[in-house]
Amino acid sequence: MSRAFTPGASVSGKSQKKVLAAAAELHYRPNLLARSLTQKTTRIIGVAIDELKNPHSMKMIDVATRELQARGYMALLLNITEGENYQAVIAMADQLQVDGILFLGTVISDELFDIARTLYEIPLVQVCRNNDKVRGIDVVNLDGYQAGREMAKLLVEQGYSRFGYMKGPDTESAQLLRMEGFRDELQVSGQQINSLLIAGNYNRRLSFVTMNNYLNATAPLERIEALFCEDDILALGALEG
Known about the structure:
single chain; alpha/beta; five-stranded parallel sheet; 8 strands; about 15% strand; elongated
């Protein structure tokens, strides 16, 4: 009977319809928690994310949760916004015996890395960030280094000679590698990053303020001619500055 409620299980369509019809008549609902005790799997995936005000985060959550649900999993949203108690949030996921944790576009701090080291039995996947600190965390990411190099090459070809780079949080850029690629390709052409702007967060308003402060503090002839922003939200804020 339990196979009739399990997506993809080996049960004929006719038998499944009969079981589901009988269950509906009896108001029966399968107890997933009880099933998890016997199967040692909860079919729950923790989705850890910060920057929830970032519209790109909403898109990632939308895609991730739909893909998980299509595969018979449920998503447990873990809000690990900076300043929150990471330990309590991740411990809750651990106690619920989630089958894995996705870190979606999350800047993993040293504290969060320390917590991740304790999760030996839970598969961890880091999405849209690099990870060279903790073994056992799989990474799904774009080639940020190559993207940075291509951006630098384009700007140099367009004739610019003074360059800036705007970061979100002031963390190790190695999580993205965009700044390293940008810097290295500029050096190939005898150029450099002349100004490093730090917004402090991937926030449009903070980017606007950071850009305004730079413009107000820098004489026109000394200002950068081209600015590479770490993400689209920073770019939109900088354009308004």
